Amino acid sequence: MKNITVLGVTGSIGMQTVDVVKNHLDKFKIVAMSAGYNIKQVEEILEMIDVEYVCVVQKKDAQYLQEKYPDLKVTYGQEGLIKIATLPQIDIVLNAIVGFAGLVPTIEAIKAKKDIALANKETLVVAGHIITKLVKENNVRLLPVDSEHSAIFQSLNGEKHQQIKRIILTASGGSFRDKSRDELIGVTVEEALNHPNWSMGAKITIDSATLFNKGLEVIEAKWLFDVSYDQIDVLIHPESIIHSMVEFVDTSVIGQLGNPDMRLPIQYALTYPDRDVLVNGESLDLAKIASLTFKKPDLDRFKALALAYKAGRTGGSMPCVLNGANEMANELFRNNKIEFLQIEELVEKALKAHQVISDPTLEQLVEVDSWARNFVLKEIGED
Ligand code: NAD
Ligand code: MG
Question: Which of 45, 78, 98 to mutate to test the pocket of ligand 1 (most atoms within 8 A of CB)?
């Protein structure tokens, strides 16, 4: 039996994790889970599965839950997150919190020698140098949940690291993949949220439309697979069937294919190194799909991707600025405070204004993240 803590259980990845666990109750138990503000949904999950610990953001929600469920152990805030991520009985922490908020619980879980199933890519973007070092020191597994990185991880099974030539990260292209730059002027939040292939949380869906998601994934891949930026290529693949590939020194290319279904990478991170039946998983019918298409991304059109490569190559605190400015700008766009194209403009300005710190500590990263967010707010006169 694997004891799991799920951080961000009420989100898109979190709920699909609950689904995977419910289908394999002989193998997995969600001992602890965290949520944000959606307490009704927490109660629905409590009806479905037997959980011992719950952590929420606000004290008043914790008090409400504690009164209603006296046997439940309820905590709140960042302290609560750290508590449930480090409980002695936990084997693996699945981190499906969105954004920078996932960083500290990941670090504390690794220090407590928990394996990590990581959906929260922002953690690696911001602090890849800290996380990878801690993973080695504590001898834990860092298992990707992001579908592309799971595909790369699966493609590397049994292969030698020094024989990797390059990684080919596929990208659906998001909601606006067929639009020219001029056609992006005035696009609405509703249009951006209408992803052609995946149903995901709001932040990542907007990131897919700007391609910041792919940019974050380039940096995530660099840290997960210890390759240089020159070894990571992005390929637009609108059908999202080949989830990513690896080319080896002999030019052989190995990739992982499947229908777009996040439950598979979630389940693989939990069952690794084994596989198990994906309940209600649909077999891939390539004859029905008939054709798969590919296109090189235009870095002038998808500026976010160029910015991410640049920030990644500069390294140090620069990816933290990229991430923090993007989180803020993404939220402002979702709240109709800025235009779609302003997201990348604001991130670019923040990157230009930042004095890079070469080997930032966690405390410095927390400061840089908040500087980047405030920079964006000031730029639009909202501070
Ligand atoms: P979501 O918005 O649906 O869910 C986010 C979860 O995090 C919710 O449970 C929310 O309550 C919680 N949360 C948000 N802010 C928090 C905070 N400050 N403190 C504590 N909890 C907080 O997001 P999602 O789409 O499930 O994505 C989660 C993560 O997984 C993101 O990093 C995303 O990039 C990554 N990811 C998602 C998908 C997908 O298919 N949804 C695919 C690949 C990677
Ligand atoms: Mg992905």
Answer: 98
In CATH, the architecture of 2-144 is 3-Layer(aba) Sandwich (3.40)
Q: What is the CATH number of domain 315-383?
A: 1.10.1740.10
| C-beta 297 within 6 A of ligand 1 | no
User: How high is the pLDDT of residue 209?
Assistant: 95
pLDDT at residue 230, as a whole number: 98
Pocket test for ligand 1, best of 5, 7, 12 (most atoms within 8 A of CB): 12
Residues 6+ apart with CB under 8 A from 251: 165
Q: What is the mean pLDDT of residues 159-173?
A: 97
